Each structure stands twice: as C-alpha cells, then as structure tokens.
C-alpha cells in the first residue's frame, strides 16, 4: 500500500482522529470499570441496608459486575472444557451447559472446590480425593437424575420459563 503524502493540516487531522479513537477506547474501559464498581457499591449498600456483613466472593454471579462476569465466564469455560476432555464421565456435562443458569452455578461451585484442592497454597491432603469422590459425582448425578435433570444429551432443550421464579427482584445472575 502506498503511503499518501499529507500536508501539515492533514497530519494534524490524522493525529486528532487517532487521539479521539484512543480516548473512545479509554472511555469504554472506564465505563466498564464503572459498571463493576457500581455493582460492588450496590452490593455493599444492600448489605448495609439489610444489616448483613457478608463479603461477596469473586465467583458470586449474583453480585459481580459485567467485567468480572466476562472474566469469570472465560475462566470457567476454559476449565469446563478441560474437565470434559480429562474425564470421560464429565462428558455428561452437556455442551450447552452455559444455556442453563443453574448448571453454570453448579459448575462454578465445582470449579471453586477443585481450586481449593489443587491451587490453594496449603490444601487439605484429602481435598482432591473428596473432589473426586463427592463433588464431581454429585454434580454429574444431579445432571441426569431427579426432577430437574437435563434433557440435552442429543441437543439443547430449554426448560420452560415456568421452571424459574420471576427474576425482577434479582440482580443479573448469569
Ligand atoms: Zn441444554
């Protein structure tokens, strides 16, 4: 591609356009961070109003902001891909798992338990065994048995909306 020779005014226009573009990216990033901060402040105000003093965890879909949700989604997706490839049993987790909010919650909890067993500095020596003996089979069993078992082995089937309570009082769970 040949470079077009620009006069000084043209160069200034290009520089201004580049600056504007950078400012727009900065603004998008700040807006995203602000949304996360807002979610955090909202959660803390809620705690103050209700007298609860609990600290929200970074894996709480109910309270984290959109940026944190995006990061959590990416990490969880990567980990679920790994367990589905690592354990033949884990193929029971359907590929449409992200379409089921309760399965997202279940897998998040399973992932946190896995991290406690494998990525904590001083894990309990039985944590990994418990994860295999209890947490993983428990989730796989719930996916296939009981009144809320999934029916997605061949293809995704959405649950009827009537399965869920109205969400107007809930703040953006995944
Ligand atoms: Zn499904």
From TrEMBL:
Which domain of life does the UniProt lineage start with?
A: Bacteria
State what protein this is by name.
Answer: DUF4913 domain-containing protein
Which keywords accompany this UniProt record? Answer: Coiled coil
Q: What positions belong to coiled-coil segments? A: 13-40
Q: Does the keyword Coiled coil apply?
A: yes
Q: Does the keyword Coiled coil apply?
A: yes
């Amino acid at each position: 591609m040949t470079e077009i020779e620009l006069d000084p005014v043209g160069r200034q226009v290009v520089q201004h356009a580049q600056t504007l573009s950078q400012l727009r990216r900065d603004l998008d990033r700040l807006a995203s961070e602000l949304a996360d901060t807002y979610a955090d402040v909202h959660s803390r105000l809620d705690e103050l109003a209700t007298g609860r003093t609990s600290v929200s965890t970074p894996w709480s879909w109910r309270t984290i902001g959109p940026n944190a949700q995006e990061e959590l989604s990416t990490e969880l997706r990567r980990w679920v891909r790994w367990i589905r490839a690592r354990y033949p049993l884990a193929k029971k987790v359907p590929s449409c798992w992200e379409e089921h909010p309760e399965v997202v919650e279940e897998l998040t909890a399973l992932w946190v338990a896995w991290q406690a067993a494998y990525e904590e500095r001083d894990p309990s020596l039985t944590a990994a065994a418990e994860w295999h003996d209890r947490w993983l089979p428990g989730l796989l069993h719930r996916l296939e048995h009981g009144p809320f078992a999934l029916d997605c082995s061949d293809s995704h089937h959405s649950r009827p909306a009537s399965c869920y309570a109205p969400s107007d009082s809930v703040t953006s769970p995944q």
